[in-house]
Amino acid sequence: QVQLVESGGGLVQAGKSLRLSCTPSGLILSINSMGWYRQAPGKQREMVATIVSGGSTNYADSVKGRFTISRDNAANTVYLQMNSLKPEDTAVYYCSAEVVPFRGPTSRYWGQGTQVTVSS
Predict the structure, then answer these.
(1) 59: which residues sit within 8 A by CB, 6+ positions away?
(2) What is d(CA 44, CA 102) in angstroms, rounded to the nearest whole number?
(3) How far is C-alpha 112 from the chain's CA centre?
(4) Do 70 and 58 form a contact (C-beta atoms < 8 A)?
């Protein structure tokens, strides 16, 4: 019933920028929190950035000062602005959200993932 649709990934050179977006669809009453996670080959999935409904944000140390997470509460859309990209940022990026649906229990949802590749 609830889906997270991601977009914005791609192949860029080091130092360039990308902006990821995640738009939920379905009968949603509210969203408590949203975030971006990433997983590189051979590594565990890690938190990149999160934002709660009140606007507070949290970032991984490796992306502080370079990435910015924001949220359009009216559209329930979350963005990840990625500047000064580095090769080590290469990973599959996943959007996640704790969703309160119109019907059913509050649950954690995940997007399908979008590939970000940064060349040196």
Answers:
(1) 48, 49, 67, 69
(2) 33
(3) 11
(4) no
Average pLDDT over residues 69-93: 94
The dihedral formed by the CA atoms of 62, 43, 35 and 64, expressed in degrees to the nearest 10: 0
The one-letter amino acid code at 28 reads I
Q: Give strand ranges (E) for 1-120.
A: 3-7, 10-13, 18-25, 28-39, 46-52, 57-59, 67-72, 77-82, 91-101, 107-110, 114-119
With 0-12 / 13-18 / 19 or more C-beta atoms within 10 angstroms meaning exposed / middle / buried, residue 8 is middle
CA–CA gap between residue 40 and residue 7 (Å, rounded): 18
The one-letter amino acid at 14: A
Mean pLDDT confidence for 61-66? 98
CB 49 within 8 A of CB 59: yes
φ and ψ of 82, to 5 deg: -115, 110
Tens digits of residue pLDDT in 33-44: 999 999 999 999
Per-residue model confidence (pLDDT) at position 54: 85
pLDDT at 10: 97
